[in-house]
Write a structure and sequence with these properties.
Layout: E1 8-13, H1 18-32, E2 36-43, H2 56-74, E3 78-84, H3 93-106, E4 110-114, E5 120-121, E6 125-126, H4 129-145, H5 154-159, E7 168-172, E8 179-182, H6 187-194, H7 204-215, E9 228-235
């Protein structure tokens, strides 16, 4: 498909660090090119620690601070935390309402989220159920809910937020990709942003190596490496 640069992007993810791991290089690339990027995080990752002395309340503070710093490195304009419980995310009407509200507020032409169809990757990885939930809720929010003003009419009545149709959806970490974004000039920014997630990454150098190995385009010559991130892109009719 023809590469087209969005103007305003809303990324909707389940946890702090999802945006950076799944598509951080693409978000950074867009931000470099003047695209307005807003990241919405449904949970604050309040379960993601093996430390015996850690509490969920303390972990929320740590992870929100890490995500805010990481998003700044990527060049995102804003991070919004919805503060649902980590590990307990479902594609409920309440979650859909909150995502629709963000779509109507930020008026993106492009929405980025995760693939709700992916249950596992190969034979060594099970996808987090929160990832599936946020993908399902976001796709339902994009179409048809945010488009039709009689869905959640309180947005218009109480907040002055009007129906909005985002025409392009990028699904990150897809079961089947349709599109690759060349992120050669932004992958190092992605890695820098991930370095902010100190509570989640034990070996930063191993992480950096893994990110580049995953994104390396095997068709590029060894002396001129090229890095790509893969998506399923849905282009809705206007």
């Amino acid at each position: 498909m023809t590469e087209s640069k969005p103007r305003r992007v809303l990324g909707v993810f389940a946890h702090p660090d999802d945006a950076m791991f799944f598509c951080g290089a693409t978000l950074a690339l867009w931000a470099m090119d003047g695209v307005e990027v807003t990241i919405v995080v449904a949970t604050s990752g309040d379960k993601g620690s093996p430390e015996l002395e850690m509490t969920s309340e303390t972990l929320v503070e740590i992870r929100e601070a890490e995500e805010t710093a990481a998003a700044k490195v990527l060049g995102a304009k804003e991070v919004v935390f919805l503060r649902y419980k980590d590990g307990e995310l479902y594609p409920t009407l309440e979650l859909r309402r909150d995502i629709v509200r963000m779509i109507r507020m930020k008026q993106p032409d492009t929405v980025v989220t995760l693939d709700p169809t992916v249950f596992w990757r190969g034979t060594r990885s099970i996808n987090h159920p929160d990832h599936r939930a946020i993908g399902e809720a976001t796709l339902a929010a994009v179409f048809p809910t945010a488009r039709d003003r009689l869905n959640f009419p309180e947005h218009e009545r109480d907040e002055g937020l009007f129906a909005h149709k985002a025409l392009t959806v990028y699904i990150a970490g897809p079961a089947e990709s349709t599109h690759a974004v060349d992120v050669t000039r932004s992958i190092d920014t992605q890695i820098l942003s991930l370095r902010e997630h100190k509570s989640q990454i034990n070996d930063m150098e191993a992480m950096a190596k893994r990110i580049k190995e995953r994104a390396l385009d095997p068709r590029a010559p060894e002396e001129y490496p090229r890095y790509v991130e893969h998506f399923r892109v849905i282009q809705l009719q206007g």
